[in-house]
């Protein structure tokens, strides 16, 4: 009893109920996320237009596809979990099976929580991006987190599942689909960010003649500064390469006593003058 893990201080009969509650809670979180994305889509169409509307729709559509993939993943994981319990409990009850495999049960609960939390965070980040109060990078990080928690859920389920289980094969397929949809969210977010930043940078409509002239002069100053910095970095790169080549040659030919020796002359026949190319 002293050696048993104490991370879950609950009774044996409560452990099985907790697994079912967490899976149900995750499903509810996914359903709520889908509804919120639909509301954001409707709000974006009413309050934005042009490039911003196009970007918001593309991002929200990719988030919707990801939520649908996660919903299917959770459903398949629940089916596999029931199959594992039925095939492994024998004459024991479901609660006894969960209590006997408490470490596995804890991993399953943790993975389910992580998936639900990732979905909620993704929706909140998408909401802030659409309202222009958040960062696009938040969506990218949330997508990576969802992919990681999905891998955790599959790993937790795979430990007890039979290799020939159809539900396990479906779960792995769902996991690949979630990863693909998460990658689509990242791609749509990055392209949308570039599109918005380019539009904001190049939108000069509404500027007065004096404002345009001032912007032009400031841009010329920046160009000169960048050109000077670029030239300095090129000189620095050249010096670094010289030092690198010098050290590399010195290391290859350095004697044991540390004194420099001249590089050995190349053998005859190894470095030949290339033949002159014939004119066509």
UniProtKB/TrEMBL annotation:
<dbReference type="GO" id="GO:0030864">
    <property type="term" value="C:cortical actin cytoskeleton"/>
</dbReference>
<dbReference type="InterPro" id="IPR035964">
    <property type="entry name" value="I/LWEQ_dom_sf"/>
</dbReference>
<feature type="region of interest" description="Disordered">
    <location>
        <begin position="247"/>
        <end position="280"/>
    </location>
</feature>
<dbReference type="GO" id="GO:0006897">
    <property type="term" value="P:endocytosis"/>
</dbReference>
<keyword id="KW-0175">Coiled coil</keyword>
<keyword id="KW-0963">Cytoplasm</keyword>
<dbReference type="Pfam" id="PF01608">
    <property type="entry name" value="I_LWEQ"/>
</dbReference>
<dbReference type="GO" id="GO:0035615">
    <property type="term" value="F:clathrin adaptor activity"/>
</dbReference>
<feature type="domain" description="I/LWEQ">
    <location>
        <begin position="7"/>
        <end position="248"/>
    </location>
</feature>
<feature type="coiled-coil region">
    <location>
        <begin position="207"/>
        <end position="243"/>
    </location>
</feature>
<dbReference type="GO" id="GO:0043325">
    <property type="term" value="F:phosphatidylinositol-3,4-bisphosphate binding"/>
</dbReference>
<dbReference type="GO" id="GO:0080025">
    <property type="term" value="F:phosphatidylinositol-3,5-bisphosphate binding"/>
</dbReference>
<dbReference type="InterPro" id="IPR030224">
    <property type="entry name" value="Sla2_fam"/>
</dbReference>
<dbReference type="GO" id="GO:0007015">
    <property type="term" value="P:actin filament organization"/>
</dbReference>
<dbReference type="GO" id="GO:0032051">
    <property type="term" value="F:clathrin light chain binding"/>
</dbReference>
<protein>
    <submittedName>
        <fullName>HIP1R protein</fullName>
    </submittedName>
</protein>
<dbReference type="InterPro" id="IPR002558">
    <property type="entry name" value="ILWEQ_dom"/>
</dbReference>
<dbReference type="GO" id="GO:0051015">
    <property type="term" value="F:actin filament binding"/>
</dbReference>
<dbReference type="GO" id="GO:0030136">
    <property type="term" value="C:clathrin-coated vesicle"/>
</dbReference>
<dbReference type="GO" id="GO:0048268">
    <property type="term" value="P:clathrin coat assembly"/>
</dbReference>
